[in-house]
Amino acid sequence: MNLGRTKATSIVKNVIGKCHSEDLANILKSTCFSFIIDESTESVVLRHYAFYNFLLIPIVQLKEQLHRKYLMNLIFDESKIPLNNIIGFASDGCNSMMGAWNSDSSRFNEHMPACKTLPRSCEDLARNIFNYFKSSSKCIYQYKEFQEFCNVSPHKILYPAQTRWLSLSIVVLPKFVNINKLFQSDRPVLCLLHSKMHELYKDLFYRHMRPCNDPTSIDPSNTSYFLPLYDIYLGAEVLNLLNKPEICKNEAMVKDIRKRCREFLITGCRQIKLRFDFDNPILKSLTQLNPKTVFSSKRPTTLIPFIQMFPRVVKQLNISIQDIDDSWHKIGTINLETEFVDNLKLLNVEEFWIQLKLFERDDENPF
After folding, report:
1. Are residues 144 and 173 in the same domain?
2. For 292-318, how does the pLDDT look when each residue is reduced to its tens digit (9 = 90+)?
3. Helices 338-345 and 349-358 meet at what angle, rounded to 10?
4. Matching PANTHER family, A to Z (predicted)?
5. Which in 73, 115, 139, 198 has the greatest CB count within 10 A?
C-alpha cells in the first residue's frame, strides 16, 4: 500500500497515535509510573514527556507558564490519569525544569509536595560550605593548612549537585545511595535484590521501632511499636554530637532533632514499601540462586516450586522439570573441593551457574 506524505502523517497522528495514547492512558490509570522529561535535540525546541518508557508526548514549547498549565491539563486532567500513580520524577537540573519558580518540578510540587521531613537547611549547609571555598584560592589554602595542623588526611569538599546524585554518598544519605548503586550495577544482581532491600528496610525500621516478627507487615508510623524518643538510634557520630554539653543542655532542640529524624525514618520506610513488593514470590525465590545460598544450609532440597513459576522458560528450553531438579539435588550430594567451592561463592550469579554447568568429573558434566 502506497500513501502520500500528508495522508501517512495524518493517519499516524490522528488514528494510530491517538489510539495508542488512549490505550496507554488506560494502562497508566491503574499502574504506577515514573515521569521523565527532557528536551529533544531536534532543530525545533520540543520537550518530550516519557512515562517509564511507555508513553512519549512531544509538546511544542509555548510561553513557559502556558506550557506547564497545558502539560498538567493535557496529560492528567483530560486523560484522567491519577496523580497518585506517579512514583518518580526525573529531569536535568536547568531552571525551567528544576527551578523554584514556575518550573516543571515546582508545578508537580503544587500537587504532590516533595519530602521535607529533613529540613532544607541540611542540604543548603552542604552547598554553602562548598560555595564558600570554591572561588577563593586563599580559603582553599587555609583549609589545607587547617587539615595539616589537625594532622588529618586531606578531605575534598563535595558539592551535592542535583544531576550528580553520587556526590550525596558522603554528604547526605549513604544508605539510600548504596542501594541506588546496586540498581546501577553492571552485573546481574536480581537474586540479591530482595535480601538487600529487606536489609535496608530493617535497618531503617529498627532504628526507631521495637523488634517484631515481620517488620514489613508493620506500619512504620504505628506508635504502639515506637521506641522511646531518646532510644532512637541515629548513629555514633550523631549521638556523640548530641551528648556534647553545649548541645544536650538545649533539650528543646535535641527533642526536635530526634523527632525530625524519626519522621525521616518513617518516610523512608514508607517510600520503600511503596516501591518494592516484599511479598513478591518470584523476587523472594530468586535468593535461592545466590551462590552463597546454594552451598549453605538454607538451600532448599528441591527447586520444583521455583521452576513452576517459569513454565514458559522450561517449555522453551525443552527440558523436563525432573532433570533440572536432579541437577539441583546433585549439588548437595557430589563432593566438591573446598577451594573450588570458595572460588564459586565469589562469582556473580551468572558466572557461577556457567562455571557449574561447565564443571567436569569423570568426563561428564554432572550439572
Report:
1. no
2. 888 888 888 888 888 888 877 777 677
3. 150
4. BED-TYPE DOMAIN-CONTAINING PROTEIN, HAT FAMILY DIMERISATION DOMAINCONTAINING PROTEIN-RELATED
5. 198
